[in-house]
Design brief:
With 170 residues, the protein is an alpha/beta fold. The chain is built from seven helices and six strands; from the N terminus they run H-E-E-H-H-H-E-H-E-H-E-E-H. Strands 1-2-5-4-3-6 form a six-stranded mixed β-sheet, covered by helices on one side. It starts with a helix and ends with a helix.
Amino acid sequence: MEKDLKNIFSNLKLYRDGIFGKCLIDNKQLNEINLRTKVANLDYKDLLFEVGKHHSIEVMDQEVIKFLSNIKKNGVIIDVGGCWGWHWRNLKAYRPDVKVVIIDFVRENLFKAKTLLGGEINRSVFLVHGNAVDLNFPGNTFDGYWSVQCIQHIPDYKKVYEEAYRVLKK
């Protein structure tokens, strides 16, 4: 792993399943975690087809391209609440120089991301079992912050924004 990435993950352990972790769970989020875990544990034949039932994949692909156009060369992005990680399935085609760190508080979601993203895991996309209100990264680390359909579900959204500000480069 590159030196810069080692610094990013210095507070986290890499587990045998290829996922970094140090997730502190807020009891206020237990219902959300249980619901998301139940959904993630369902057996899906085609993950992207399932995503397409709830999201406009084409629209979000365009949003990803726009977002990536604002990221500096060799930039590192944090995706908070990244769930199955489907936004980054074409990262190598769009921006092979960029790295993405996906955070989700449901480990089972990250298993789905491993399936969708395959060989890019721990190369250009890194999975972290973590919480948006307690990001275990050094300050001034990330060049971009991506979060879709996540923050509105977190009771302490003020803490989410404080953490975002802390980990983003000035």
